[in-house]
Amino acid sequence: MRIGTTLTNYIIQNQRHIAGATGEFTGLLNDLAVACKKIADLVNKGALVNVLGSADSENVQGEQQKKLDVISNQIMIEALRHNGHIAALASEEMDSVYHLPPEAPRGKYLLLCDPLDGSSNIDVNVSVGTIFSILKAPEDRTDPNEADFLLPGAEQVAAGYCLYGPSTMLVMTTGNGVCMFTLDRDFGEFLLTRDQVRIPAQTGEFAINASYRRFWEPAVRRYIDECMAGADGPRGKNFNMRWVASMVAEVHRILTRGGVFLYPCDQRLAAAGKEGKLRLMYEANPMAMIVEQAGGAASNGRQRILDIEPREIHQRVPVILGSSEEVERVVAYHTAG
Ligand code: P6P
Questions:
Q1: Which of 128, 247, 266 to mutate to test the pocket of ligand 1 (most atoms within 8 A of CB)?
Q2: Distance between CA 136 and CA 86 in Å, rounded?
């Protein structure tokens, strides 16, 4: 009777590819898998366990928090703080770095997360997800501070997400390709269902919130207008459009069949003093690592996402990611001015 490859088995088998990995890394991935299974359970039950609707609070971004945003954040903390695999935690839902209780053992990793991305979809039963990024903690500090987290995305040890959709899927990379695991609810294990995922270099599908067209920079307007012009336009082919308003779902679709995702900066965001909508440290960086590891590309329009030197933990960036030839075209339009 074949069981399949569990997430834990996969990590142990591939540990040699993970720089400086010991059992601690396997333990951290296991903690994350436990947190994601718990979040998946609550997302799946929804109204039955009274977790829908707003939490009547705002996050550091000044955005309305959903009950499940707050609960998912608490689950991440609970799953990680006692096991000695991390030294500190940063989350979209917390203003500052979460320091472990004094008695908790310290691990050698820093964890950053968006505990429930796309949560505006939760009340309308559309897919949402958890995004995580793993960095090495500084050797000499018991309680890392915000500055210790401010490493470029290229220094991530691992990155991943859990998509709460028709299937619950955990997708991750440790720098040696991208693998996908599907949750078997019958015995509570994530089982390997795809390995060495590759994104096609070309695509006929773009994802953008087209309602903001009037605010876009000329480069983005040119790119999207050419896609919309279809076979009679300069691209000489027809395009399809998708917008789920859940980055995890968009990235998963792109990993599965190609595509390009754009959340550019625009006049609306610039007027509010924001460089973009999406956050660099726990949305753009982990997704950029995953996309690049699958042969795609990820840029802010002018610079590789993974090369951006962070200034602060909740920093925002424009994001263009997916099929490499399309990302390269959008970047070329930005640099052409
Ligand atoms: P809009 C979800 O809030 C999110 O951060 C991403 O997951 C998603 O791609 C984007 O914002 C949706 O933004 O402006 O279309 O609601």
A1: 247
A2: 9
Q: How far is the CA of 129 from the centre of ligand 1 (A)?
A: 12
Instruction: Return all residues near 281 (Cβ < 8 A) that are at least 6 apart.
Output: 90, 112, 133, 149, 310, 313, 314, 315
**Residue 46, H or E segment:** none
CA of 248 to the centre of ligand 1 (A): 10
247 lines ligand 1 (CB under 6 A): yes
Query: Cα separation of 196 and 194, whole Å?
Result: 7
Residue whose CA lies nearest to ligand 1 atom number 1: 245
**Which pTM was predicted?**
0.97
What domains are there in the chain, each with its CATH number? 7-194 (3.30.540.10), 205-335 (3.40.190.80)
**Cβ–ligand 1 contact at 246 (below 6 Å):** yes
Q: For ligand 1, pick from 61, 117, 274, 316 the residue to mutate: most ligand atoms within 8 Å of CB.
A: 117
Kindly state the greatest CA–CA separation across the chain. 66
Q: Which residue has the tokens 């980055």?
A: 247
Task: Report which residue type is found at 208.
Answer: I
pLDDT tens-digit series, residues 258-304 = 999 999 999 999 999 999 999 999 999 999 999 999 999 999 999 99
Model pLDDT for residues 25-82, shown as the tens digit of each residue? 989 999 999 999 999 999 999 999 999 989 988 887 788 889 999 999 999 999 999 9
217: three-class secondary structure by DSSP: coil
CA–CA separation, 255 and 315 (whole Å):
25
